[in-house]
Structure prediction request, 390 residues.
Amino acid sequence: MYCSRALGRGEAAVLDDGSLRFLEELSNAPGPAGYEREAMKVIKRRLDGLADMRTDRLGSLIYSRRGTDDGPVVLLPGHIDEIGFSIGSIDPDGFLSFNPLGYWWEQSLIGQRVKVLTRGGELRGVITTAFPFARESRPDKPLSMDGMCIDIGASSREEATAMGVRVGDAAVPDSRFFTVTRPRIRDGAQDGERTIAFGKALDNRIGAFLSAELVRHLAESGMKHPNVIAGAATVQEEIAAQGAMTVSHLVRPDVAIALDVDISGDVPGSSSKVAPTRMGEGVSITTWDPRMVPNQALKELCIDICERNDIPYQLSHARATTDAAVIHSSRFGVPSIVVGPSIRHMHSHVAVADLQDIDDTLRFLIELSMALDRDTVDSLTSIDGLRCGR
Prediction:
């Protein structure tokens, strides 16, 4: 049972128990890059009757809410694919080799449970390798994926095939979503409580969740936003942002706010130079990544909205890239930026997020959606009054 009062800082929470059940369902749904349909169904059910929904031919889902007919189109993509695996072969003893769908830190894999997604249903298994005492010589360095396999309990290729496994089937972490509520301590004294979420695929089901919840909130509240809000659950971001490319061509946005999680630098061994943001400290606003420098006027607008509305934020210098890198250079250019909460342990079987950060980000998006009228969006790229010649 969730309690929205446990979010923390004392502001009126936007998230409610229904929102958090939605996040749990999204996290638990299987959906690695290229196999996102089950996760997409969760979004579609949540927004049924609340948004104009359509898909592109790569499989991304777009859900729009029209405020004013002549307003700018604001694209808010959050990629829904998770990292996973693709079955590469079945050996004579029934063990499955696999290739990555997205980046994995290989040291985190051995002993982890997985679900193999076959045409007949899910099969449970475990990632493993030969025990050191069973080897002629013990490994003197960490193993790569080439030295690992998935054990589904089969003892022959024929048994594995009879269980329904085929080359090209996907596999995902076998990890269930849960939350814990803990005291928040500031300056030596308790300052409310915080609810912390643990689950797979929080990179980036949180982003897809935020875009869907924004559209839901606008629909149910009847807020008159001066634009067209186009949320999107994009596919295949983990393998070169494929879905963002097709969505941007279909939606034809005037401005884009990519919703993606940031790396929390509060884990032991992390460097604040590399990962400057922390879980529990509000909205992360990305100021640079290897493939995109955000629109500077849009960045300042985001900061101003946070400061005017007492929404905590932190500035990030990211080492990875997102859907925004593709969108901002699509067609004749789209002013873009990346925002979202910082989470721990991304690209692993279990990530950790602070629900207050998610709520802060949603509050920020609501305020931003009210600020992005035609004049404001045009001003993001104007030079002494000269505007884009669309």
